């Protein structure tokens, strides 16, 4: 990474670390932990599939498919090509200990949590537009929580969101294309 960009990344990271927002510590830690292994998105997909009828089931499957594709691409070729960027030094960069979540052992770039959140929100939101605002808020909270809890630099999150959004869009388009034609009532003579 260019030294100037790395400097901006650390400056934004430190600015988030310096936020005096103790009321957010516990909720954002919980959001970050709930997003581990996409648990949050599996729960949301289950609710959508259960209560959303056929469109809800299609959207839930599309969202989970987007997460699967995104997770594979982020955790295999991208993280390997990025050279296993080291995680931030939370202590040295001033993240309060009460915000900390378990530090992942994988490379920092890009954020898999943010990628999965964006993939799910964009895929499901593309098929169920009425859910789009709420899903975007949830995905944004997950993405922000990764910087807030100190496990990612802002650029890790931004690139993760961008990759996830692309795969979410592709999954929604594929779901629309694969949609079986609407059945027409038969005419009886």
SSE-based structural type: mainly alpha
Shape: globular
Low-confidence parts lasting 5 or more residues at pLDDT below 50?
Answer: none
Rounded average pLDDT = 89
**N-to-C SSE series?**
HHHHHHH
Written overview of the protein:
The chain contains seven helices and no strands. The chain is mostly helical. The protein has a single domain, classed as Up-down Bundle (Vanadium-containing Chloroperoxidase, domain 1), CATH 1.20.144. Helix 5 packs antiparallel against helix 6 and helix 5 runs parallel beside helix 7. The longest helix has 29 residues. The mean pLDDT is 89.
In short:
This protein has 189 residues and is an all-alpha fold. Helix content is 67%, strand content 0%.
Considering the chains and any ligands shown, give keywords for the structure.
7 helices; 189 residues; Vanadium-containing Chloroperoxidase, domain 1
Lay out the secondary structure.
Blueprint: H1 3-17, H2 22-34, H3 39-51, H4 53-81, H5 112-127, H6 132-148, H7 154-177
Helix pairs in contact: 2-6, 3-4, 4-5, 4-7, 5-6, 5-7, 6-7
């Amino acid at each position: 990474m260019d030294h100037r960009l790395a400097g901006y990344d650390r400056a934004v990271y430190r600015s988030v670390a310096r936020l005096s927002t103790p009321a957010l510590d516990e909720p954002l830690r919980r959001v970050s932990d709930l997003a581990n292994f996409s648990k949050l998105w599996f729960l949301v997909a289950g609710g959508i599939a259960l209560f959303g009828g056929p469109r809800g089931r299609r959207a839930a499957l599309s969202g989970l498919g987007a997460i699967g594709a995104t997770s594979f691409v982020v955790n295999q070729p991208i993280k390997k090509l990025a050279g296993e960027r080291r995680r931030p030094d939370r202590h040295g960069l001033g993240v309060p200990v009460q915000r900390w979540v378990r530090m992942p052992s994988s490379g920092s770039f890009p954020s898999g949590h943010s990628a999965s959140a964006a993939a799910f929100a964009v895929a499901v939101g593309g098929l169920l537009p009425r859910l789009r605002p709420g899903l975007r808020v949830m995905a944004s909270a997950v993405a922000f929580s990764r910087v807030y809890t100190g496990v990612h630099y802002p650029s890790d999150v931004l690139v993760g969101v961008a990759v996830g959004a692309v795969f979410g869009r592709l999954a929604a388009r594929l779901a629309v294309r694969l949609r079986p034609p609407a059945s027409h009532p038969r005419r009886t003579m």
